[in-house]
Every structure is written in structure tokens, then in C-alpha cells.
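Researcher: Structure for this, please.
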Amino acid sequence: MSESAVEKPADKPANKPEILVVDDSKVIRLAAKKMLGNDYDILLAEDGQVAWEMLQQKNDISVVFTDLSMPNLNGMELLEHIRHSDIENIAALPVIILTGADDSESVKQTVFDAGATDFITKPFESIDLISRAKAYARLSRKVVELEKRTGYDQLTGLCNATSLEEQGVKAFSFSSRHKLSISTIFFEVTDFQECFLSHGKNVAQQIIATVGKRLQEVMREEDIAARIGVAKYVLVLPMTNKQKTDVVINRMRDSINKLVFDTGKEKIRVNFVAGYAVPEQLDEIQFKDMLEQAENALQRALNSSDNPVVCFDDALEEKVEAPPKIVTEQDIELAFSLILEGNYYQIPEPHLSAVVKRLSSFMQYVDNQVDDDRVDDDRVDDSTEENIAVS
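Model: Predicted structure, C-alpha cell format:
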């Protein structure tokens, strides 16, 4: 063989995607390696601790298959380590749980809540392992890199968490600088994990994508919408006070709650709960603080049996109300002059109610003559349900 033939690039095998298989059973590990070894580089670990150390050292792992019951660090603990990792590539890894025949549905539910991507029941056949590997390994890293680069969630077309942070900070800073209102809504589809386990990935993804589309229909051009969890969404609304935020949430509920997904065997209805925040003193907080307030309100809504929508301020256990400020005639005159100059956003918040009261007759006339581009938008037909066929 000539020297040139030895150095031909075509003779060098292509790099294979790396898959990590974690199980304390040597038989399971070797079986998985035999099934997947032709198409993937297989890394083996006998427990979660060894697997976690390998994840810290390896940068090219595409998928993790892991058992639940293992010594040192079990599968649930390994999953929690992965999902809470500060390294984005690790935190976003698909994690397929290898469950035993004795594992109950409640166990699967708990693991899914912790961030599991999918399940395979042991003893598994080669087609089960190969199909999961193909589904998650081929595009997992490319999707993460693409989403980070483009700033959009591939399934819904909404912003991802990175883009939400970038755009949200700008909108918040503008509102704070010009003393404008801004609100944030966190909402989550309820019982989504149960739907995933009962109806499968395709139905679950159809629901996620459709809810994202509905969200786009109720937002304005200046609003920011993002998907930040499996079935969790965020909407940032510049120049929107508490009353208008309530209107937007009601429109979202009317639009999303009427959806009916027809699987051919049964019809699935979608519901969600929401938490929102409309901070008053923007100069005292940051954008991330407003997000935390809205998420706190969402958690209260999720834990409530009779209140699907919670406002952060309303949810505070103890809230000390400040004494009402006296608005003088001089304050009213100054407010009118600011309105005439086009600088109405400079009117102090405590003076607004007095100005509105003084202009109540005029405001009633305006309400009857001019359609509000948010409240009176009839783009969504609330009169009928919408049946969506899914497979």
C-alpha cells in the first residue's frame, strides 16, 4: 500500500455520536453496547457517581441512558445533577430512564417531573434502544447550539430563555427610565406530565406548539413571549398595568382553554394556571426580580385548588398599605400640562387616579369612540371550540 493511500482522508472513520449508558448491571451495560455499538461510541458507567464524573470530563456526550436503582448515586440523583448543572450542554442533555417492570406510574411521574426526557422498560429490545438513540442523539447538540444562536425555541417559535433575558432587560430598563408600567406573566399547562405519559411525545409536542401559537395571537409586536420549560411560558408586557394584564390573561384563558385535541381515542382539553407581577417601583428592582415575583405567583397558583390566576402583590401574606397621598390642585394642573406636552408618562403614579377622576367624562367618551388595541381586539373567536386532530 502506498503512503498516499494510507493518508487518504476517506479512509478515516467518521466520528460517531457518544452515548452514555449507566446501570449497575454488567449484563445491561454490555447488552446496550452490543445493540448500539455499530452506530455510536458507547460509554459505560456502573453507577451515577461514575457517570457524573464522566459528564464533567466529556464534552461530546449526546444522550444519557440511566437506570434508577444504583449504588452511590442513583438515577434520580444523577438526573437532578444533570438538570441543575451550571454547564448548559449538560443541563440540556436528553436523559432516558431505564425503568424496571416493578416501577409504578407514580415513580415515572416523579422522575418526569424532575426532568426525564423519556422512558424504556426493562427488559428492552434492540429496537427500543435504537429508536430512542436515533431520536435524541442526532439533533440534540445541534438543536441546543441553534437555539442559543438564533434565540428562538424550535418547537414553538417563541423566544428561548437566553433571548428572554436579553430582550427583557432592555424592555425593563426602558420602562424604568421613562416611568412606564411593565408586567410579566408566567403560565404553565396543568397535568402536562400525565398527558405525556398517557398519550406520548407526539401529542405532547402538538399541545406545546399549539399553545405557543395561541400565545402569539394575543400579544402585541412590542411584547416578549418565551418558552422556558417543558410546558411553561413567559409573557413580558411593556406599558401594561395590572388591569390590562388581567385582560390579557383572560384572553389567553379563553383561547387556550377551548382547545380540544382529538387523539382518535379520546379528546384532551388543555388548561393552565398563571402568576403575574406588575412592580410599581422599577428603580428599586431588576428584570430578574420581576421574573422571580411572577414565578413565585405561579407556584402559588399551582398549589391553589381554587385560584388559577395569582398576582404577586395580592399573594403576599402581609402587605402594609401606604397611607394615601394628597393630590393638590397644583398637582392636577401640572399633570394636564404634561399631557398637553405629550409627556404624560412623567405624571407620578399616585396622581393618575386623581387625573382620571377629573377626566372621567372625557374618558367615557373616548371608551365609546376608540377601540383599545388590546382589550377590544376580536382576533380570537370565543364562541366555539377548536378540535385539533393529533397522532
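Researcher: Any notable elements?
Model: The radius of gyration is 26 Å. The chain has three domains: 15-149, 161-320, 329-369.
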